[in-house]
Amino acid sequence: MPVVRVTTGQAPALLMTPPASDGPAITFDHVSFRVNGRALVQDLVLSVNQGETLVLLGRSGSGKTTSLKLINRLLVPSAGEVRVNGRPTTEWHPIRLRRSIGYVIQHGGLFPHFTVARNIALVPQIENWPKEKVEARVQEMLTLVGLSPELLDRYPQQLSGGQRQRVGVARALAADPPILLLDEPFGALDPITRSEMHLEFHALQQRLKKTVIFVTHDLREALLLADRVALMEGGRLIVSLPVTEFPHSQEPLVRAYMEAFSTEPR
């Protein structure tokens, strides 16, 4: 198996490089995850194609975030197997796996004692990119997410909620990972900013064609952003359907979501 040498300023570490894969980017193969005998995810069978945006939709406690954390090995399955680019997550070096996956959470998850520039540059610097390349990438990411260069020296607490979220997306994309995980990233934003972020994220994905797994409990958000919607309830997958087919499903839980959506105030 080929290896890549990654230096961190101390002793070099040998990390396995991922094998090339023409199949799904991510596969859940009969995956369960239990804590103290309680199943948070139960027998999940699901694949995510290369370049696809899959939305995990469901109520709080349905298993969405747990499933997301199983992808970047923040959690390890109690049963079954999660594969990234054809390789089980348990066979990846966890650091190499996580650096190949961008991760965005509510409020951006920024380091409060780092400036905007340092937050965005974090992974490229860890990967020992040349200084000039890091600086150019930071500028490129700032432009990509629609932020002004004058924000580079500010700290997260000096930014608006929408600005923090944009910086979080920029940081996740900085090292150009093929996979992007987003855990309700826009849930804490006001409605106008959230709508703006939806449009900008959709435009970004049209350009970048990343493999995206997006967690939300908001059906409107799912229908706006997804190529495919996977509906979860009680740790189980209920349906996984293309976004064009989801509203027409006769699955009772889908119908309940659509009926609730149709009666929401606009």
Structural features:
single chain; 266 residues; alpha/beta; 6-stranded mixed β-sheet; 8 helices; 12 strands; 33% helix; 27% strand; globular; disordered N terminus
How many runs of DSSP E, i.e. beta strands?
12
The helical percent reads 25-40%
Mean pLDDT: 89
Structural class: alpha/beta
| Oligomeric form | single chain
Q: How are the strands ordered across the major sheet? A: 8-9-10-5-11-12
Shape: globular
As residue ranges, the low-confidence spans are: 1-20
Largest sheet: 6 strands, mixed
Helix and strand pattern? EEEEEHEEHEHHHEHEHEEH
User: What is Rg?
Assistant: 19 Å
Strand percentage, roughly? Answer: 25-35%
Number of helices: 8
Descriptive notes:
The chain starts with a strand and ends with a helix. The protein has a domain at 107-177. Helix content is 33%, strand content 27%. The chain has eight helices and twelve strands. With 266 residues, it is an alpha/beta fold. The strands form three sheets. Strands 8-9-10-5-11-12 form a six-stranded mixed sheet, sandwiched between helices. It has a four-stranded antiparallel sheet with strand order 4-3-6-7, with helices on one face. A two-stranded antiparallel ribbon has the order 1-2.
Helix-strand layout with pairing:
Layout: E1 3-6, E2 13-16, E3 26-35, E4 38-48, E5 53-57, H1 64-71, E6 79-84, E7 87-88, H2 94-99, E8 101-105, H3 116-126, H4 131-144, H5 161-173, E9 179-183, H6 191-208, E10 211-216, H7 219-225, E11 228-233, E12 236-242, H8 252-262
Parallel strand pairs: 5-10, 5-11, 8-9, 9-10
Antiparallel strand pairs: 1-2, 3-4, 3-6, 6-7, 11-12
